[in-house]
Design goal:
This protein is of the alpha+beta class and 516 residues long. The protein is 31% helix and 25% strand. The chain has a six-stranded mixed β-sheet, with helices on one face. A hairpin with a 5-residue loop joins strand 6 and strand 7. The protein is elongated, with a radius of gyration of 27 Å.
Protein backbone atom coordinates (compact mmCIF):
# COMPACT_ATOMS: atom_id res chain seq x y z
CA UNK A 1 0.00 0.00 0.00
CA UNK A 2 1.25 3.49 -0.88
CA UNK A 3 -0.24 6.58 0.78
CA UNK A 4 0.50 10.27 0.39
CA UNK A 5 1.97 12.07 3.36
CA UNK A 6 3.47 15.38 4.43
CA UNK A 7 6.81 15.95 6.10
CA UNK A 8 5.68 18.63 8.55
CA UNK A 9 9.20 19.76 9.36
CA UNK A 10 10.31 20.74 5.87
CA UNK A 11 6.79 20.91 4.33
CA UNK A 12 7.49 18.30 1.68
CA UNK A 13 4.95 15.91 0.15
CA UNK A 14 6.12 12.30 0.37
CA UNK A 15 4.93 8.83 -0.57
CA UNK A 16 4.75 6.28 2.26
CA UNK A 17 4.99 2.64 1.24
CA UNK A 18 3.54 0.36 3.94
CA UNK A 19 3.42 -3.44 4.38
CA UNK A 20 1.84 -5.46 7.18
CA UNK A 21 4.27 -7.77 8.95
CA UNK A 22 3.40 -11.45 8.41
CA UNK A 23 3.38 -14.34 10.83
CA UNK A 24 6.85 -15.74 11.45
CA UNK A 25 5.86 -19.18 10.08
CA UNK A 26 4.75 -17.73 6.70
CA UNK A 27 8.00 -18.28 4.81
CA UNK A 28 6.86 -16.71 1.54
CA UNK A 29 5.55 -13.54 3.22
CA UNK A 30 8.71 -13.29 5.34
CA UNK A 31 10.75 -13.38 2.13
CA UNK A 32 8.69 -10.46 0.80
CA UNK A 33 9.32 -8.56 4.02
CA UNK A 34 13.04 -9.28 3.76
CA UNK A 35 13.07 -7.73 0.29
CA UNK A 36 11.06 -4.76 1.51
CA UNK A 37 13.71 -4.21 4.17
CA UNK A 38 16.45 -4.63 1.57
CA UNK A 39 15.08 -1.94 -0.74
CA UNK A 40 16.14 1.11 1.33
CA UNK A 41 19.50 -0.54 1.99
CA UNK A 42 20.12 -1.17 -1.72
CA UNK A 43 18.72 2.04 -3.21
CA UNK A 44 19.32 4.34 -0.24
CA UNK A 45 22.91 4.81 -1.37
CA UNK A 46 21.83 5.93 -4.83
CA UNK A 47 21.33 9.61 -5.63
CA UNK A 48 20.24 10.35 -9.18
CA UNK A 49 17.44 12.41 -10.80
CA UNK A 50 16.22 9.22 -12.50
CA UNK A 51 15.82 7.22 -9.27
CA UNK A 52 13.05 7.95 -6.76
CA UNK A 53 14.73 8.92 -3.48
CA UNK A 54 14.12 7.07 -0.20
CA UNK A 55 14.10 9.40 2.80
CA UNK A 56 13.42 7.14 5.79
CA UNK A 57 12.51 3.63 6.95
CA UNK A 58 10.78 2.36 10.08
CA UNK A 59 8.94 -0.56 11.70
CA UNK A 60 6.68 -1.27 14.64
CA UNK A 61 5.09 -4.50 15.85
CA UNK A 62 2.53 -4.60 13.03
CA UNK A 63 3.89 -2.63 10.07
CA UNK A 64 7.04 -1.74 8.16
CA UNK A 65 7.20 1.41 6.07
CA UNK A 66 9.51 3.54 3.99
CA UNK A 67 9.18 7.23 3.18
CA UNK A 68 9.93 8.04 -0.45
CA UNK A 69 9.99 10.87 -2.94
CA UNK A 70 6.50 11.72 -4.19
CA UNK A 71 6.26 11.22 -7.97
CA UNK A 72 2.82 12.33 -9.05
CA UNK A 73 2.87 11.94 -12.81
CA UNK A 74 1.79 8.29 -13.02
CA UNK A 75 3.65 5.28 -14.40
CA UNK A 76 4.93 4.51 -17.86
CA UNK A 77 2.67 1.47 -17.74
CA UNK A 78 -0.40 3.71 -17.45
CA UNK A 79 0.80 5.75 -20.41
CA UNK A 80 1.36 2.67 -22.59
CA UNK A 81 -2.03 1.18 -21.69
CA UNK A 82 -3.75 4.20 -23.23
CA UNK A 83 -2.82 2.67 -26.58
CA UNK A 84 -1.38 5.84 -28.09
CA UNK A 85 1.81 5.24 -30.06
CA UNK A 86 4.72 7.25 -28.74
CA UNK A 87 6.85 9.34 -31.02
CA UNK A 88 10.22 7.78 -31.82
CA UNK A 89 11.95 10.78 -30.23
CA UNK A 90 9.81 10.47 -27.07
CA UNK A 91 10.56 6.77 -26.79
CA UNK A 92 14.30 7.31 -27.17
CA UNK A 93 14.38 10.09 -24.57
CA UNK A 94 12.53 8.02 -21.98
CA UNK A 95 14.76 4.98 -22.54
CA UNK A 96 17.88 7.15 -22.39
CA UNK A 97 16.82 8.60 -19.01
CA UNK A 98 16.17 5.09 -17.69
CA UNK A 99 19.58 3.94 -18.94
CA UNK A 100 21.28 6.93 -17.32
CA UNK A 101 19.70 5.99 -13.98
CA UNK A 102 20.79 2.38 -14.45
CA UNK A 103 24.31 3.48 -15.31
CA UNK A 104 24.44 5.29 -11.96
CA UNK A 105 23.16 2.20 -10.14
CA UNK A 106 25.43 -0.22 -11.99
CA UNK A 107 28.49 1.91 -11.26
CA UNK A 108 27.68 1.42 -7.56
CA UNK A 109 27.22 -2.32 -7.85
CA UNK A 110 23.40 -2.37 -7.90
CA UNK A 111 21.45 -4.42 -10.48
CA UNK A 112 17.72 -3.60 -10.51
CA UNK A 113 16.54 -6.94 -12.03
CA UNK A 114 12.91 -5.85 -12.47
CA UNK A 115 12.85 -3.11 -15.11
CA UNK A 116 9.31 -2.83 -16.47
CA UNK A 117 6.81 -0.03 -17.27
CA UNK A 118 5.10 -0.16 -13.86
CA UNK A 119 8.45 0.43 -12.14
CA UNK A 120 9.08 3.63 -14.08
CA UNK A 121 7.29 6.72 -12.78
CA UNK A 122 6.93 9.87 -14.87
CA UNK A 123 7.30 13.09 -12.90
CA UNK A 124 5.29 16.20 -13.73
CA UNK A 125 8.21 17.57 -15.74
CA UNK A 126 8.44 14.32 -17.74
CA UNK A 127 11.52 12.95 -15.95
CA UNK A 128 11.33 9.14 -15.73
CA UNK A 129 12.19 7.80 -12.26
CA UNK A 130 13.02 4.21 -11.38
CA UNK A 131 11.23 2.76 -8.36
CA UNK A 132 10.95 -0.60 -6.59
CA UNK A 133 14.45 -1.87 -5.94
CA UNK A 134 12.90 -4.68 -3.88
CA UNK A 135 14.43 -7.43 -6.02
CA UNK A 136 17.56 -5.43 -6.81
CA UNK A 137 20.82 -7.02 -5.80
CA UNK A 138 23.97 -5.32 -4.65
CA UNK A 139 27.17 -7.11 -5.56
CA UNK A 140 28.03 -7.48 -1.87
CA UNK A 141 24.58 -8.77 -0.86
CA UNK A 142 23.78 -12.42 -0.16
CA UNK A 143 20.01 -11.95 0.12
CA UNK A 144 19.35 -13.58 -3.26
CA UNK A 145 21.13 -16.79 -4.11
CA UNK A 146 21.86 -18.23 -7.55
CA UNK A 147 19.04 -20.48 -8.75
CA UNK A 148 16.23 -18.21 -7.50
CA UNK A 149 14.01 -16.71 -10.20
CA UNK A 150 13.41 -13.01 -9.59
CA UNK A 151 11.75 -10.47 -11.86
CA UNK A 152 8.74 -10.12 -14.15
CA UNK A 153 8.68 -12.92 -16.78
CA UNK A 154 8.05 -10.77 -19.88
CA UNK A 155 11.12 -8.66 -19.08
CA UNK A 156 13.41 -11.37 -17.67
CA UNK A 157 16.62 -12.27 -19.50
CA UNK A 158 17.51 -15.83 -20.54
CA UNK A 159 19.99 -16.12 -17.68
CA UNK A 160 17.30 -15.07 -15.19
CA UNK A 161 14.97 -17.77 -16.53
CA UNK A 162 17.76 -20.32 -16.13
CA UNK A 163 18.28 -19.27 -12.52
CA UNK A 164 21.85 -18.19 -13.18
CA UNK A 165 23.68 -15.34 -11.52
CA UNK A 166 22.95 -12.05 -13.29
CA UNK A 167 24.79 -8.79 -13.75
CA UNK A 168 24.01 -5.36 -15.21
CA UNK A 169 23.44 -6.84 -18.67
CA UNK A 170 20.16 -8.38 -17.44
CA UNK A 171 18.89 -4.82 -16.88
CA UNK A 172 20.02 -3.90 -20.41
CA UNK A 173 18.04 -6.87 -21.77
CA UNK A 174 14.94 -5.59 -19.94
CA UNK A 175 15.52 -2.12 -21.42
CA UNK A 176 15.69 -3.77 -24.84
CA UNK A 177 12.32 -5.43 -24.20
CA UNK A 178 10.89 -2.12 -23.01
CA UNK A 179 12.30 -0.25 -26.01
CA UNK A 180 10.81 -2.85 -28.38
CA UNK A 181 7.42 -2.53 -26.64
CA UNK A 182 7.42 1.26 -26.77
CA UNK A 183 8.39 1.29 -30.44
CA UNK A 184 5.93 -1.35 -31.67
CA UNK A 185 3.09 -1.43 -29.15
CA UNK A 186 3.77 -5.09 -28.31
CA UNK A 187 6.28 -7.06 -26.28
CA UNK A 188 8.85 -9.14 -28.18
CA UNK A 189 8.03 -12.24 -26.09
CA UNK A 190 4.50 -13.10 -24.92
CA UNK A 191 2.43 -16.09 -23.88
CA UNK A 192 1.94 -18.60 -21.10
CA UNK A 193 4.98 -19.26 -18.87
CA UNK A 194 6.21 -22.33 -20.76
CA UNK A 195 5.81 -20.65 -24.16
CA UNK A 196 7.39 -17.46 -22.84
CA UNK A 197 10.38 -19.37 -21.49
CA UNK A 198 10.92 -21.04 -24.89
CA UNK A 199 10.66 -17.73 -26.74
CA UNK A 200 13.08 -15.87 -24.48
CA UNK A 201 15.72 -18.61 -24.61
CA UNK A 202 15.33 -19.88 -28.18
CA UNK A 203 13.48 -17.55 -30.58
CA UNK A 204 14.21 -14.22 -32.24
CA UNK A 205 11.32 -11.72 -32.45
CA UNK A 206 10.46 -9.81 -35.66
CA UNK A 207 12.42 -6.64 -36.27
CA UNK A 208 10.67 -3.54 -34.88
CA UNK A 209 10.60 -2.10 -38.41
CA UNK A 210 8.54 -5.13 -39.51
CA UNK A 211 5.80 -3.86 -37.18
CA UNK A 212 6.27 -0.11 -37.65
CA UNK A 213 7.59 1.20 -40.95
CA UNK A 214 9.07 4.50 -39.72
CA UNK A 215 11.75 2.81 -37.58
CA UNK A 216 15.23 3.14 -39.13
CA UNK A 217 17.25 -0.09 -39.70
CA UNK A 218 19.96 1.30 -37.42
CA UNK A 219 17.44 1.39 -34.54
CA UNK A 220 16.49 -2.23 -35.34
CA UNK A 221 20.14 -3.15 -34.87
CA UNK A 222 20.41 -1.39 -31.50
CA UNK A 223 17.27 -3.12 -30.18
CA UNK A 224 18.25 -6.58 -31.41
CA UNK A 225 21.70 -6.36 -29.89
CA UNK A 226 20.11 -5.53 -26.53
CA UNK A 227 18.00 -8.70 -26.97
CA UNK A 228 20.96 -10.99 -27.66
CA UNK A 229 20.54 -14.32 -25.89
CA UNK A 230 24.08 -14.31 -24.52
CA UNK A 231 25.02 -11.46 -22.13
CA UNK A 232 28.40 -11.26 -23.90
CA UNK A 233 26.63 -10.23 -27.13
CA UNK A 234 24.61 -7.39 -25.59
CA UNK A 235 25.69 -3.83 -24.98
CA UNK A 236 28.57 -3.90 -22.50
CA UNK A 237 27.08 -1.09 -20.43
CA UNK A 238 24.26 1.44 -20.34
CA UNK A 239 26.36 4.28 -21.78
CA UNK A 240 27.24 2.27 -24.90
CA UNK A 241 23.51 1.51 -25.31
CA UNK A 242 22.71 5.25 -25.02
CA UNK A 243 25.40 6.29 -27.52
CA UNK A 244 24.29 3.80 -30.15
CA UNK A 245 20.55 4.47 -29.72
CA UNK A 246 20.77 8.26 -29.92
CA UNK A 247 22.99 8.08 -32.99
CA UNK A 248 20.79 5.49 -34.72
CA UNK A 249 17.57 7.42 -34.01
CA UNK A 250 19.16 10.87 -34.63
CA UNK A 251 17.52 12.23 -31.46
CA UNK A 252 18.78 15.12 -29.36
CA UNK A 253 18.46 13.82 -25.80
CA UNK A 254 19.14 17.18 -24.17
CA UNK A 255 15.42 17.97 -24.43
CA UNK A 256 13.59 17.09 -21.22
CA UNK A 257 10.26 18.90 -21.07
CA UNK A 258 7.14 16.87 -20.47
CA UNK A 259 5.76 17.72 -23.92
CA UNK A 260 8.94 16.42 -25.58
CA UNK A 261 9.32 13.31 -23.42
CA UNK A 262 5.72 12.20 -23.77
CA UNK A 263 3.46 11.71 -26.74
CA UNK A 264 2.36 15.34 -27.03
CA UNK A 265 3.46 17.46 -29.91
CA UNK A 266 4.87 20.77 -28.75
CA UNK A 267 3.04 23.79 -30.17
CA UNK A 268 5.07 25.32 -33.04
CA UNK A 269 6.80 28.50 -32.02
CA UNK A 270 7.07 31.52 -34.28
CA UNK A 271 10.54 32.02 -35.73
CA UNK A 272 11.65 35.57 -34.98
CA UNK A 273 14.88 35.35 -36.94
CA UNK A 274 18.06 37.30 -36.28
CA UNK A 275 18.62 41.04 -36.60
CA UNK A 276 22.15 41.89 -37.67
CA UNK A 277 23.64 45.34 -38.22
CA UNK A 278 25.80 45.55 -41.35
CA UNK A 279 27.33 48.93 -42.18
CA UNK A 280 24.40 50.76 -40.64
CA UNK A 281 21.78 48.59 -42.39
CA UNK A 282 19.51 46.13 -40.69
CA UNK A 283 19.13 42.68 -42.25
CA UNK A 284 16.58 40.14 -41.01
CA UNK A 285 17.63 36.52 -41.50
CA UNK A 286 14.99 33.81 -41.25
CA UNK A 287 15.22 31.17 -38.52
CA UNK A 288 16.50 28.36 -40.73
CA UNK A 289 19.32 30.41 -42.22
CA UNK A 290 20.19 31.93 -38.85
CA UNK A 291 20.46 28.45 -37.38
CA UNK A 292 22.79 27.45 -40.20
CA UNK A 293 24.95 30.56 -39.82
CA UNK A 294 25.24 30.70 -36.05
CA UNK A 295 24.99 27.12 -34.80
CA UNK A 296 28.38 26.16 -33.34
CA UNK A 297 30.31 23.43 -35.10
CA UNK A 298 29.75 20.07 -33.41
CA UNK A 299 32.47 17.48 -33.67
CA UNK A 300 31.14 14.02 -34.54
CA UNK A 301 30.86 11.66 -31.60
CA UNK A 302 33.36 9.07 -32.82
CA UNK A 303 32.70 6.63 -29.99
CA UNK A 304 28.92 6.70 -30.53
CA UNK A 305 29.31 6.21 -34.29
CA UNK A 306 31.61 3.22 -33.78
CA UNK A 307 29.14 1.67 -31.32
CA UNK A 308 26.30 2.23 -33.81
CA UNK A 309 28.28 0.41 -36.51
CA UNK A 310 28.79 -2.51 -34.12
CA UNK A 311 25.09 -2.44 -33.22
CA UNK A 312 24.18 -2.82 -36.88
CA UNK A 313 25.83 -6.26 -36.87
CA UNK A 314 24.51 -8.29 -33.90
CA UNK A 315 25.49 -11.55 -35.62
CA UNK A 316 28.91 -10.44 -36.88
CA UNK A 317 32.22 -11.47 -35.36
CA UNK A 318 33.68 -7.98 -35.15
CA UNK A 319 36.54 -6.45 -33.19
CA UNK A 320 36.94 -2.75 -32.56
CA UNK A 321 39.61 -0.34 -31.42
CA UNK A 322 37.83 2.86 -30.39
CA UNK A 323 39.54 6.07 -29.34
CA UNK A 324 38.26 9.61 -28.89
CA UNK A 325 39.29 10.73 -32.38
CA UNK A 326 39.30 7.53 -34.48
CA UNK A 327 38.23 3.91 -34.58
CA UNK A 328 39.00 0.69 -36.41
CA UNK A 329 36.48 -2.15 -36.91
CA UNK A 330 37.14 -5.43 -38.68
CA UNK A 331 35.64 -8.90 -38.90
CA UNK A 332 33.05 -11.04 -40.68
CA UNK A 333 29.29 -10.52 -40.88
CA UNK A 334 26.23 -11.35 -43.03
CA UNK A 335 25.52 -9.31 -46.15
CA UNK A 336 22.40 -7.66 -44.70
CA UNK A 337 24.30 -6.50 -41.61
CA UNK A 338 27.14 -5.16 -43.73
CA UNK A 339 24.64 -2.99 -45.62
CA UNK A 340 23.27 -1.62 -42.33
CA UNK A 341 26.75 -0.90 -41.00
CA UNK A 342 27.71 0.96 -44.17
CA UNK A 343 24.44 2.94 -44.00
CA UNK A 344 25.33 4.04 -40.46
CA UNK A 345 28.74 5.19 -41.66
CA UNK A 346 27.25 6.98 -44.66
CA UNK A 347 24.89 8.96 -42.39
CA UNK A 348 27.54 9.81 -39.80
CA UNK A 349 29.39 12.73 -41.52
CA UNK A 350 32.73 11.39 -40.31
CA UNK A 351 35.78 13.17 -41.75
CA UNK A 352 37.98 11.00 -44.02
CA UNK A 353 40.36 8.70 -42.19
CA UNK A 354 38.57 8.83 -38.83
CA UNK A 355 36.84 5.45 -39.17
CA UNK A 356 38.66 2.46 -40.67
CA UNK A 357 36.28 -0.42 -41.38
CA UNK A 358 37.26 -3.73 -43.00
CA UNK A 359 34.34 -6.15 -43.28
CA UNK A 360 34.33 -9.59 -44.93
CA UNK A 361 30.81 -10.59 -45.96
CA UNK A 362 29.27 -14.07 -46.00
CA UNK A 363 25.96 -15.75 -46.80
CA UNK A 364 25.49 -18.84 -44.66
CA UNK A 365 24.03 -20.37 -41.47
CA UNK A 366 26.88 -19.32 -39.20
CA UNK A 367 25.19 -16.90 -36.80
CA UNK A 368 23.89 -19.59 -34.44
CA UNK A 369 27.48 -20.75 -33.90
CA UNK A 370 28.90 -17.30 -33.24
CA UNK A 371 27.58 -16.83 -29.71
CA UNK A 372 29.84 -19.65 -28.57
CA UNK A 373 32.86 -18.25 -30.43
CA UNK A 374 32.51 -14.55 -29.61
CA UNK A 375 34.04 -14.62 -26.08
CA UNK A 376 37.30 -15.90 -27.61
CA UNK A 377 37.42 -13.40 -30.49
CA UNK A 378 40.93 -11.97 -30.81
CA UNK A 379 41.22 -8.24 -30.20
CA UNK A 380 43.13 -6.11 -32.68
CA UNK A 381 46.03 -5.54 -30.31
CA UNK A 382 46.67 -9.29 -29.88
CA UNK A 383 48.49 -9.39 -33.25
CA UNK A 384 46.89 -12.59 -34.48
CA UNK A 385 46.83 -12.32 -38.28
CA UNK A 386 45.09 -14.70 -40.71
CA UNK A 387 45.26 -14.43 -44.51
CA UNK A 388 43.76 -16.81 -47.08
CA UNK A 389 46.37 -17.26 -49.82
CA UNK A 390 45.27 -16.70 -53.43
CA UNK A 391 42.58 -14.81 -55.30
CA UNK A 392 38.91 -15.44 -54.54
CA UNK A 393 36.96 -17.46 -55.35
CA UNK A 394 38.97 -20.62 -54.81
CA UNK A 395 37.91 -23.10 -57.46
CA UNK A 396 37.04 -26.78 -57.14
CA UNK A 397 40.19 -28.86 -56.33
CA UNK A 398 42.32 -25.80 -55.67
CA UNK A 399 44.20 -25.98 -52.38
CA UNK A 400 43.31 -23.89 -49.34
CA UNK A 401 46.43 -22.27 -47.88
CA UNK A 402 46.59 -19.98 -44.88
CA UNK A 403 49.24 -17.54 -43.71
CA UNK A 404 49.17 -17.07 -39.94
CA UNK A 405 51.13 -14.74 -37.67
CA UNK A 406 51.20 -16.21 -34.17
CA UNK A 407 50.90 -13.92 -31.13
CA UNK A 408 53.91 -13.80 -28.84
CA UNK A 409 52.08 -15.78 -26.14
CA UNK A 410 50.53 -18.61 -28.25
CA UNK A 411 52.13 -21.99 -29.02
CA UNK A 412 49.22 -24.12 -30.27
CA UNK A 413 47.13 -23.68 -33.39
CA UNK A 414 43.73 -25.11 -34.30
CA UNK A 415 41.83 -24.66 -37.58
CA UNK A 416 38.20 -25.52 -38.40
CA UNK A 417 36.44 -25.11 -41.75
CA UNK A 418 32.69 -24.31 -41.65
CA UNK A 419 30.74 -24.84 -44.87
CA UNK A 420 27.61 -23.09 -46.06
CA UNK A 421 25.62 -26.35 -45.71
CA UNK A 422 26.07 -26.34 -41.90
CA UNK A 423 28.87 -28.94 -41.77
CA UNK A 424 32.29 -28.42 -40.23
CA UNK A 425 35.62 -30.24 -40.41
CA UNK A 426 38.68 -29.87 -38.16
CA UNK A 427 41.79 -29.22 -40.27
CA UNK A 428 44.41 -28.60 -37.58
CA UNK A 429 43.87 -30.02 -34.10
CA UNK A 430 46.31 -28.42 -31.75
CA UNK A 431 49.57 -28.58 -33.69
CA UNK A 432 52.46 -26.92 -31.78
CA UNK A 433 53.89 -23.72 -33.27
CA UNK A 434 56.59 -21.29 -32.20
CA UNK A 435 55.20 -18.11 -30.57
CA UNK A 436 55.50 -14.91 -32.59
CA UNK A 437 56.31 -16.63 -35.90
CA UNK A 438 54.73 -16.59 -39.38
CA UNK A 439 53.28 -19.98 -40.36
CA UNK A 440 52.04 -21.28 -43.75
CA UNK A 441 49.31 -23.89 -43.31
CA UNK A 442 47.92 -26.21 -45.98
CA UNK A 443 51.05 -26.69 -48.12
CA UNK A 444 51.13 -30.28 -49.48
CA UNK A 445 53.85 -32.66 -48.25
CA UNK A 446 54.69 -36.26 -49.14
CA UNK A 447 52.37 -37.43 -46.35
CA UNK A 448 49.79 -34.67 -46.74
CA UNK A 449 47.96 -33.88 -50.02
CA UNK A 450 46.66 -30.51 -48.84
CA UNK A 451 43.14 -29.18 -48.29
CA UNK A 452 41.30 -29.35 -51.61
CA UNK A 453 38.22 -27.19 -52.22
CA UNK A 454 35.09 -29.26 -52.78
CA UNK A 455 31.29 -28.96 -52.80
CA UNK A 456 29.16 -27.21 -51.61
CA UNK A 457 30.32 -23.97 -53.17
CA UNK A 458 29.54 -20.51 -51.81
CA UNK A 459 30.92 -18.56 -48.86
CA UNK A 460 32.55 -20.66 -46.15
CA UNK A 461 34.47 -19.72 -43.02
CA UNK A 462 37.91 -20.59 -41.71
CA UNK A 463 38.07 -20.46 -37.90
CA UNK A 464 41.61 -20.08 -36.60
CA UNK A 465 42.12 -20.63 -32.86
CA UNK A 466 45.44 -20.15 -31.07
CA UNK A 467 46.15 -20.97 -27.44
CA UNK A 468 48.97 -21.25 -24.95
CA UNK A 469 48.32 -24.97 -24.44
CA UNK A 470 46.14 -27.82 -25.73
CA UNK A 471 42.61 -26.62 -26.34
CA UNK A 472 40.04 -28.75 -28.20
CA UNK A 473 40.42 -32.53 -27.71
CA UNK A 474 41.88 -34.40 -30.69
CA UNK A 475 39.14 -36.41 -32.40
CA UNK A 476 40.37 -36.84 -35.96
CA UNK A 477 39.24 -35.02 -39.07
CA UNK A 478 35.76 -36.52 -39.13
CA UNK A 479 32.86 -34.25 -39.98
CA UNK A 480 31.01 -32.27 -37.35
CA UNK A 481 27.94 -30.11 -37.35
CA UNK A 482 28.52 -26.48 -36.49
CA UNK A 483 26.22 -26.89 -33.49
CA UNK A 484 28.40 -29.73 -32.15
CA UNK A 485 31.53 -27.65 -32.65
CA UNK A 486 29.97 -24.69 -30.85
CA UNK A 487 29.08 -26.89 -27.87
CA UNK A 488 32.57 -28.42 -27.73
CA UNK A 489 34.14 -24.97 -28.10
CA UNK A 490 32.11 -23.54 -25.22
CA UNK A 491 33.17 -26.36 -22.90
CA UNK A 492 36.84 -26.18 -23.95
CA UNK A 493 36.92 -22.39 -23.59
CA UNK A 494 35.45 -22.58 -20.09
CA UNK A 495 38.05 -25.18 -19.07
CA UNK A 496 40.88 -23.08 -20.52
CA UNK A 497 39.64 -19.90 -18.85
CA UNK A 498 39.26 -21.62 -15.46
CA UNK A 499 42.82 -22.93 -15.81
CA UNK A 500 44.12 -19.42 -16.55
CA UNK A 501 45.07 -20.23 -20.17
CA UNK A 502 44.69 -17.80 -23.07
CA UNK A 503 42.67 -18.51 -26.22
CA UNK A 504 42.07 -16.26 -29.23
CA UNK A 505 40.02 -16.78 -32.39
CA UNK A 506 40.20 -15.16 -35.81
CA UNK A 507 37.67 -15.88 -38.63
CA UNK A 508 38.14 -15.46 -42.39
CA UNK A 509 35.69 -15.76 -45.28
CA UNK A 510 36.54 -18.20 -48.09
CA UNK A 511 34.66 -17.84 -51.36
CA UNK A 512 34.48 -21.07 -53.35
CA UNK A 513 33.15 -21.91 -56.83
CA UNK A 514 33.10 -24.74 -59.40
CA UNK A 515 35.85 -25.04 -61.99
CA UNK A 516 35.57 -22.56 -64.84
Amino acid sequence: MVIEGLDRVIRRNVAIKVVRKPALDDAEAMEILARFRQEPVTSGGLSHPGIAAIYDYGEDERYAWMVMEMVSGGTLDSLLKKGDRLLLSSTVRIIVEVLRALSHAHARGVVHRDIKPSNIMLADDGQPKLVDFGVARATNSDLTIQGTLMGTPSYMSPEQFRGEAVDARADLWACGVLLYQMLTGRKPFEGEPAALLHQVISTVPPLPSDLRNDIPPAVDAVVMRALSKSPHDRWPDAISFIDALTLAAKVDVTASTREELLNREARPKRRLGWLIAVSGLSVVISGALALHLFQPFRKPDVRAIANAVLAAAPCGLLTAQIEESSFSIEGVLPQTEAERARAVLADSTLPPGVGRVHLDVFEGPFCSMFSALRPALAQQDERLDLTVVGAMPLRHDQLLRLDVVMPAWANYIHVAYASSDGSLVLLEEGSPQAPGTRVRLGEPRPDFPGWAIDRPFGTDLVLLVVSDGPFLPVRGQQGHTQAEYAENFTQAFRVARDAGRRVALRPAVVETAPKE
